[in-house]
Structures are given as structure tokens and as C-alpha cells.
Amino acid sequence: MVASSAKPLFFFSFLFLLLLLLLLFLAPFLSSAMEFHVVKLHGLAFTGRQHHQGHSSRNKVSLNLFHRDVISGRNFSSHRHRLEHLLERDSRRVASLTRRLSAASYHLDDFGSEVVSGLEEGSGEYFVRVGVGVPPRDQYMVVDSGSDIVWIQCQPCAQCYPQSDPVFDPAESASFAGIGCGSPVCGLLNGGDSATASCHAGGCQYAVSYGDGSYTKGTLAFETLTFGATAVGNVAIGCGHRNRGLFVGAAGLLGLGWGPMSFVGQLGGQAGGAFSYCLVSRGAGADASGSLVFGRTAAIPVGAVWVPLLRNLHAPSFYYVRLLGLGVGGERLAVQEDAFRLSDEGEGGVVMDTGTAVTRLPEAAYVALREAFAAGTAGLPRAAGVSIFDTCYDLAGYESVRVPTVSFYFAGETILTLPARNLLIPVDEGGTYCLAFAASRSGLSIMGNIQQEGIQITFDAANGFLGFGPNTC
Known about the structure:
One of its GO terms (molecular function) is aspartic-type endopeptidase activity. Keywords: Aspartyl protease, DNA-binding, Hydrolase, Protease, Signal. The protein folds into two domains: 29-47 and 304-472, Acid Proteases (Cathepsin D, subunit A, domain 1); 108-270, Cathepsin D, subunit A, domain 1. The chain has eight helices and 31 strands. The chain has helices at 2-26, 68-71, 79-100, 184-189, 263-267, 296-299, 363-376, 449-452; strands at 36-40, 54-57, 60-67, 126-132, 137-144, 150-153, 177-178, 195-200, 203-209, 215-227, 230-244, 252-255, 274-278, 290-294, 305-310, 320-321, 323-328, 331-332, 350-352, 359-362, 382-383, 392-394, 400-404, 406-410, 414-417, 424-426, 432-435, 437-440, 445-447, 455-460, 465-472. It has a six-stranded mixed β-barrel. Strands 18-17-24-25 form a four-stranded antiparallel β-sheet, covered by helices on one side. The radius of gyration is 23 Å and the shape is globular.
């Protein structure tokens, strides 16, 4: 009898272990939130690292994402100095988005007048390496999920900011072809939320402003972009001859917004209207890297948790999600759903943004989150607030701490519980850590890149869904 029961016992033991491992792997994406995380503090500080360019196959284009601190070449005197620069950039980005997404002040900039300098703005947090032209010249490009236009600085350059690589010269590319005024592509620019088109000597001229003082003006053209071993021809790009802004050595911008002129929009059926990215977590090892993947087969993962995307008709480039509430420690907070609602006039709502670092929430929602998190960390020593952070802790001497989970409640009964490392941010070398959320001065909510770190995030723009997981980085 003992021998006959051994196999069933082994089978059920193996099945139990398999289910346990599956639950542990999928824990951040399940519809029931955990109560507490253990945060290992030594792994939260950002460490610079080098990446390879990426790889591609017939049905997949995959690029490594570079954080700005990797390629800027700037040495900060202290972690506090680095943080101050991050928060300065972040505040300007948020102010720019608020102006751009406010129905009351929605307008196109007048490109006939001088635009305020963006040299101090430091636009862009994540970059990719892209080959431009034939033969391809490798260039760093800012990745922006809230922009539609793809553009680079070009010779002859009447006004250009410094960049890491030589400025692209279209005269040296066999695939560069200017776009005429009568082209339907030229007409698409005037349908965007921050771009205008005009005609000069039969050629299509473009002008784009990013609201923070950065802008680019030049000619619109078809060009070949190369990602790893994959060349994509006839991409409409802006060839900027007058550009202002500091893009930390980048040659231009790779717009991934929801409009027809973004790189994803132009790929159309080639990418199936889908892309995904995974922003590597702070403190990851030197060999870790984030990724940006195009192509429906590769970008749409099996096992992802999906939530519906919303479209703001007043700012159609941006990806909004329908957030219903927040949770701390496994308990849903008493925050009204209307706090996150996108109005018919384009006010409020929750936008996904790679260019904002710290997640912003409406005042009432943030206060509820802050108070619940503080109650769950009552045993930890507090510290004075730092800049936009008002919930800080003196954790000198601690190797790890126990903190309550933070969860987002989305439409469709989907709950995303953030990874442990996405909750606290170190603000100095002395052991001060702060809750990495802040209050919004408007009704707009922004899910920033700190809270997105380590989670595979997929945009199925063709079908109107956003996916979380199941993979991590």
C-alpha cells in the first residue's frame, strides 16, 4: 500500500510547488493585493550602467533603453545633487503636461515669435540608439510616449544644441527624400496637438513645441530608420534646422504617442499597432537593461493583465487609463472615482508618461494615500520632508524595512500592486528615504516612470488596451 501511494503523493507535491512558484511570480499582477512589502534599501539607488544597442528579428524589433544618467556623462557631487536635478526636470515636465492637457489653456504655440529657451529644462529621461539614413548613422533619440513626431537635428544647422554624435547630414543619406506640400502626410501635422505645418518652396515645413521651452523647426522628409538589423523605410521624420532644448546629447526624439505621425502609428500593420517597454529598476546590476519592443507578436505577452485605454479628444497623442481607486496595505482607500475621471472637456484623467519620474495624484487622493502609508509605517523613524516629498524616513542603519503595499484599482476589476522597490526613493547618502508620490496642483494624474520600473508595460493602441506584466526586468 505504501508503494502504491508514492507516485500520487509525489505528483501532488510537485503540483503544489509549481502552483506556489506561479503565485509568487504573478503576485504583483493578481487581482488581490498583498498587505506588506519588505524593501531592501541598498538596491534603491540608481547606478549607471552600459547597454548594448539591442537586437531584432523578422517579427520583432527590440532596443535597449538608456537612462539619461548613463549617457549624459555628468558627474554629480552627491546623491542629493542628482535628486535635485531630477526633481527640477520633473517639475518642469509636469508643468508642461498640465499646460498642454488643460482644456482651458489648450492652444498651439505661435512659432513666429521667439520661444523661451529650453536649455535648462533637460528634456527626456530614456533614450534609444537608432540608425538614421542609408548608410545608417547611429543617433541617440529621446523616447516619449506623449509625442507624435519623430525628428532629429539636421545639417545645415542654423541653431542646434550640443549632441553626442555628429549632427545628421541628409546630403550623405541615399534614402532621404523631402515631402511635398501636397502630400497627405504634410496635412497630418496640423491635426496634432503640438505641431504645425507650412509650405516653403514646395516643401513641407514643420514646427513642434513641447511646452517646456523646447522646440524644433525644419523640413519634413521620408527617411530610413534602422533598429539593430531591421531597417524601416519611408518613415516621416522632421529634419530640424532650428532646435532649442537640452536633450542630454540626444539627436532628437522618437515619438511613441497615439497619433498617426508617431513611429508606432506610421508602422501600422508592420507592428500591429503595439509596442512594449520595461524600465529597468534603480539599483539593478551592471548587466541589467531596460527594453523597448515593437511588433504585435513580440510586444503582446501571454498572461498580461489588461486595462482599457481612454482617449482625450483634446490631446489625442496621450495614453490615458481608467483608474478607479487606490489601495494601501490591501485595503481600498475611500477616494471617489471622480477624482481620476477624464471629463468630456479633456480635464483630469490619468495619463501614462515615460518622461515624468514621480507619480502625481489629485490632492485628496494623495492625502489619503499618504496618511494610510504613514499609518502602516508608524514604527519607522520619520525625517523632514525634501522638496516635493512630504513623507520621509530616517532609515540610517536599516538594511530593509517593512512597508504597506500600494495598489492601483483599474476598470475591469484589475488591481496592480506595485513592486516593493517602486515605493521609496533615497534622497541623500545619509539614509533618508521618501515616499515616491506627490500631489498634483491640478486634476491631472500622471503615472510616472519610478512607479513603472521593473514592470513590462504593453500598449495595444490598435485595440485600445494597456497591459501590465507578466514579465519583469
